[in-house]
Every structure is written in C-alpha cells, then in structure tokens.
Amino acid sequence: MRTKIIAIAAATIIIVAGAVGAFMLMQKDVKGEPLASVSLEIYGNANGDSKIDETDAALVERYISASSTGNQTEIEKFVEDNGFNLKFADANKDGTIDKSDVAQIRALARGDAKKLWFVDGAGFDRSIGLDISRIGAEYYANTELCLILELADKVVAVDNAPYIYREFYFTEEQQKRIVNLHNMYEPDYTYVNELELDVLLTFYTSGYDVKQTKLIGTDVIYLGLYNPDMSNAEGSNFIQGILKAGYIFGAVERAEAYAAWILETRDKLADIADTIPERDRPTVLMSNYPNTYFIDPDTKTVKVYCFTDPLGQACLLGGGKNVGEALYGDRYNTSLSQTSQVDALFNDGDSDDIDYIFLHMVKYTYGGTIVSGVPDHGYLAKDDAEISAAWRNAVSNDHTLLKDMDPNHLHLIAGDFRNGPSGAVLLGAYIGKMINPDHYADIDPIAIHNYYINHWLGITDFDVSADGVFMYHPIE
After folding, report:
1. CB-side exposure of 351: number of CA atoms within 13 Å?
2. Assigned domain for 393 exists
3. Euclidean distance between the first and final Cα of the chain, in Å?
4. Nearest Cα residue to 288 out of 269, 317, 312, 313
5. Alpha-carbon distances of 476 from 140, 193, 409, 434, 473, rounded to whole Å
6. What is the domain count for the chain?
7. What pTM did the predictor assign?
8. Integer Rg of the chain from CA
9. Which residues of the chain have pLDDT under 70?
10. What is the DSSP string of 176-206?
11. Is 310 among the domain residues?
12. Which end of the chain is more exposed for a tag (fewer CB within 10 A), N or C?
C-alpha cells in the first residue's frame, strides 16, 4: 500500500512548547504550566489546578481547621489567599466540606476511589462508579481515546464506523469480544441494554439525555471531545475530557502525557504560523466531499468550515488564511461552518483568490451508514484507486473556484483527522507542510502521525508512509 500524500522531504520533528501568536491562538508556553488553564472540573480539585493530588487534600484540611474557628473573616481570607475552590473542594458532593472529602481526594490521588463526581463535557454535574470493566465507545474519537489510555481490553462494544475499523484498532483476541452497536445516533436501546455496559462514551450531545434515561445501569458520559478548541485548548472541554477520562479509567499519567503532547504539538505549529506575515499566508477553503459543488457544475453553493471547527483551526495551525474570515465577519469566529453561494467568494475585485482547497471526507457515519460516492480512505484503504478517481472528478468540471487555481492544490483529506481525538494537530502539520513548506521545513507530518499511531494508539505495525490513504492529490 502507498499513502498518497504530498511529497514531503524527511525532516526531524522537534515537538517543543513555543510562544503562540497572532492568529487567535493566544496561550502561554505550555512547558511547566498546568495542563488546564481553568480548574479541572473534578470534585476534589480544591486548589483549582489541573490535577487531583495531596496538595488538594492538605488544603482541604487547612480549610477545615480555619473553618473550625467560626471566624468568617478568617475563612474568607483563607479562601482568597489560597485560591480555594469551594465548589470542587466538596469532593463527595454532599454539601459539606469535611474529613470525608479529604479521604475522597486521597483515594482519587491513589487511584482507588470507588466513585467520582465531575462536570461532564456538556456542563452537567455527574457521578460515576469507578469499577469499570465493560466499556462502549462511540465513533473514532472515543474509541481511539480508549486505545490511548490503554483500555482496549475493556472495550466490548463500538458503533458501526470503529467496528469496521476493528482489525486496525484491536488485536485478534480483543476483536472476539467486541460487538457492533450499529447506529448510535438512533440506538436500539433493547439491544444495547443487553450488553450490560458499565460505561458508554457518547460521541455527541444529541440524544444525550435520552441515552442516560433509557440505558439502564450504564453511565452514559459525554467527555467533550467533539469540538476541540485549539485557540484555547488549555481551557477547553477537549483537554478537560482527556484529563477526566484519566481519572474515570484509572489512567491519569497516560491522560496527562497525551494532553501535554497535544498542547506541545499545537504550540510548535502555532509558533511557526505566527512567523508568517498576513500578506504571505495562502488563502484556503476548507470544505467537504462529496459536496455536490465539486461533483455537479450546476450546483452554486459550497460549504465553508470556519474558526471553531477542527478543520478551520487546522488551517490556522498550518499558516493558512481561511476564506471564511473575509466572508462571514463575526459569524466566522463563532461558527463550525457556513454555506455560501460560490459567487460570494468572488464578490468584488478586491477578493482573494483561493490558493488551496481541502475537502474533508466521511465514508462511515456516526449514524451507521456508508456514504455512497465517498472513496476509500483512512487506515483501512488498500490503495488510492478510488480516491484518485474522486479527485479527478472534483477537478474535471468547469468550476468557478478552480478557474484560477492549480488543480494540484485541491486535496482530499481523510475524515480520521476531524473525527479522531488529535485536536487538529495532525491535520495542521500536514497543511503547514503543504501550503507553507519553507516555514514548516522542520516539521515532518508523517513522523508526527506515526508517533500518534505507534506510541499513543499502541499500533506498532503501521507506517503512514506506506499504509492507508489520508490525503490525496497527484504527487508533483
């Protein structure tokens, strides 16, 4: 198998923290800083940092001592001076801060707590029993996070898309235990209940409350991985979700290490992007295939992924200028995507030409369907025959967007990038190397991608320089 990716010279990837710059990725150097810039939303986090440890237990003991005096002024001063988080200090969430909270915090720190109270990715207070042996995981992000946290032996059910990928994700022995949840957008609740899952990691908030009600004896958890926010990753549900999963599944060190890698990789890419003057940044359209515009020349609208979508943020991490910024004003900063008339992309003489187009593909959907017309791609693709035909189709028609653009600057990209738990950093590395090769000369996307697969997913017999199909255009 050959992965069809733009020709990339071998380079050494050095993932270090860097100062983040002007395109709204405004974060501190992550090196030596807490992994979360806001309090980790786990009850027991008394000092409001990104970890539950002995410092939290000791702080709660000091608070209890200060409270015993009954001196309200002294208590308030203690809270202010120590950044004491009254909400999360109540580790067992019983409404009182006392010695039982100290015991719960120390149990969390040791990894032998029986229960955890936390805020889920949708902002709701939740509790979960920590005796977990049967995990259900929806879609790529949750399935891959389970592999990252070395939980594959506990995964017993996944929905249709990762089930199709099971030979890639799981060993032969693990595959024997795994069943197909099929369509988890509209689940068969009777069937899922028969699986007696301890935990179901749900992909999205749609139907979240219904799942919690209809799945009996199963803790349904939304971690918040769906919309990673690389502009404020340290304060995002994405990083919070990774860290919370570490406490839920007893894999704290692994979760912290992965979160640190994401942040460090993000900072390295963002630091490079910040060195590129605005006038030198290529204008990029992040869209999708099979968007009918790229199939049918009579279709006059196109989808534009914007700032808050992982595709939009990958564009920025790669030093691109998203065409949506000029099109949509304030809506660009708050939108996942917008749909435009193509003429709006060229509505006056001052409008920028589009230098590059990246078309996101999804073949196996969260709803359990297989999308016709989308070529084989991703980890299971054996060759580039289908994606090559799709690319030729996309550039063959007399499209307005392609008239003044090199067709080799249209790329088809695997849905794995957007729907996995890599937070836009993998795709950002590829985009940077493609559209700004001089600036990203020290970045090797293949090396980063292989490190993700081999080290984090634990799949050691896969090399993206030879296996799978992740990004395609004819190699020049």
Report:
1. 19
2. yes
3. 19
4. 312
5. 32, 52, 10, 12, 9
6. 2
7. 0.90
8. 24
9. 1-37, 346-352, 397-398, 400, 475-476
10. HH-EE---SSS--HHHHHHT--SEEE-SSST
11. yes
12. C
